[in-house]
Amino acid sequence: MCAADVRQAWRRRQGPDMLDRDAVVGALQRLLGVAAVWILFTNLPRYLLDAGIAEVPPAIVLGGFMMAALGLLAAPSPIRYASRSPLLWWGGYSLWILLAGYLLGARGEGALENTLRSGLTVASAWAFLLVFCDPRAAASGRRAIMWATLFAVAMNLVDVVRPMTFSHFVGRAAGLYLNPNIAGSAIVYGMLVGTSTLQPRARPWFVLATAIGVLTTFSRGSILVWVIAVTLYLIAGVVRPRYSQVAIGLGAAGAIAAAVPSGTIAAGVAMLRTAEGNQTERLGASGLAAALGGTSGIERQQVARRAWSLFAEHPIIGAGPGATTSWSESQSTHNMYLKFLAEYGFLGLLIYPCVVVATFWRAPKPEWPLAFTFSLAWGLFGLVSHNEFGYLHLMVVIGLMSASTVIARERQGSEGPGVQPEARLP
């Protein structure tokens, strides 16, 4: 479809020797947007590298997308939309903090690598903003997110039927994301964005499918955020399930909860012996108590105290990039706020929460349910993960939603306050 758009735009002439550059760039945006979702949002490069199928690092693939995005600067339309997004100001502030932290902070092991990785994350958000700064590209991107989310759920079910096909964790599905926590995060964000592309009667079925996908990961954070997000969608009237759908959802959840930890689906006794203890501690009897008071909870408390101590010692410029990953602790902070506080001081704390402020700044009223729920999910995930800022699938979503907000705001401003933007939720 996109290739046909490119050919049509190539044939369309404004004069004897002039191409319709806007049409060509618009078709390229749609092509790059859909490719970004199916390649980067699905974590395909990382999976191919991990499986030994391809030897191309994900950073090289991302660099290729960013170089292609630079070609969009040939037309004024992407620049006009992107220049009105506060995401540019957020990126500038973030890069300034990252550079100051590297130059003024302690340059421990991995400081340069962490700075470059974080800088690449900011630049990728800019690139995806440019890619989706076209009304049809943004709409295509949202639809692609919806289908990619269903694909992620399907891959998780493959992990249930054939354990360890993708996941590196016994008894927990992950699909192409390899890590169950990352898979759960991707499915939750995919649910939030993809719901807007569906008719109201289809939305509960889509949400039900994502519930199954998230449950198979046994990620406590993802399950909690999914429950809160769906509750808010129910309150806002975005999703209106019928009793039959609720019953099917509860039945499916019970089946998954029973099948994964016991290993009854194609896993056998070996799966049972290996995974039973792991899943019982996470979600079995007294699962909440285990989550709060078990070994995992104790370790998280310990690293949280250590991170806070680093911030107390260096409150202004922080302990330096990578300080919470190169220390003597066995794990990092499991908290984005503590991570930025410890490494970049109190000014670094603003990097993580302000990205959603920039993404949904002055969002039109029809986008408020998505904006509020997405922002809350982003904030909650930051409390349980220290890698949320660097996930490629999240930067694709951030760029897409930033562009969608600008487009909706521009359309509402040009057509009047009574006009509803495209892809509204309610």
Describe this structure in words.
The chain is mainly alpha-helical. The chain is built from 19 helices and two strands. It has helices spanning 2-11, 21-41, 44-50, 58-70, 76-82, 87-104, 111-132, 135-161, 180-194, 203-215, 220-236, 243-262, 268-283, 287-293, 295-313, 336-348, 351-359, 368-384, 392-415, and strands at residues 13-15, 18-19. Strand 1 (13-15) and strand 2 (18-19) form a beta hairpin. The longest helix has 27 residues, at 135-161. Residues 13-19, 260-277, 279-295 and 417-424 have low confidence and may be disordered.
| Count, helices | 19
Kindly, what is the distance between the CA atoms of the first and last residues, rounded to a whole number of angstroms?
A: 29 Å
Note the beta-strand portion: under 5%
Strand line-up in the sheet with most strands: 1-2
Helix content: 55-70%
- Which structural class fits the helix and strand makeup? mainly alpha
Averaging pLDDT over every residue, what do you get? 79
C-alpha Rg (nearest Å): 22 Å
Bulk shape: globular
Tell me the major beta sheet. Answer: 2 strands, antiparallel
Kindly state the number of beta strands: 2
Quaternary structure classification: single chain
List segments where confidence is low: pLDDT < 50 over at least 5 consecutive residues: 13-19, 260-277, 279-295, 417-424
Q: Give the H and E element order.
A: HEEHHHHHHHHHHHHHHHHHH
